[in-house]
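Running this now, will post back.
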Amino acid sequence: MATAPDAGDHTVGEAVGHSPDGVRRRDFIYVATGAFAGVGAVAAIWPFVDQMNPSADVLALASIEVNLAQLAEGQGIKVSWRGKPVFIQHLPPAKIAEAQAVDVSSLRDPQTYDERTQEGHRQYLIQIGVCTHLGCIPAGVAAGEVKGDFDGFFCPCHGSHYDDAGRIRKGPAPKNLVIPEYEFLSDTNVRIG
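Update: finished.
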């Protein structure tokens, strides 16, 4: 004859549906359901996040090529790259010598002219035309524009003065005009970006 289990055979808290280590099947179902819901939420949200990536036409402008053959000595042009103006100048030898002669220890953001241009193409200065103070567009690259106290660039919004090498010399801007990534494909063709 079989005997009934004694009530003392079970520990306190142990009940039907519990394993000896205290984990219930229901706990597993909750975790699995939560994980499944998380994966579903990510799958539902992904199209909205993905649409914020740059479109194909924007990615196509990730780099631009500019032909500098028509840019005469002493002239400057503005081109647009990634929605920002880029100033390209063809500096004459006298301006280059003047920019190279500046004592960089006196500059707020010390950079030599040679650090801001590429070997073999020192006559071309290429920089993003956005003031490093609050993002305004300085004047000075085109003929007839105000060039500021240092015959370079002048940001009329807050009074930042840059020299002809794009280095900050006076005013609130903390840094020089930014030099974008670029490479010369030939003596007169440059790819920016």
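Helices lie at 25-50, 56-60, 93-100, 113-116. More later if anyone needs it.
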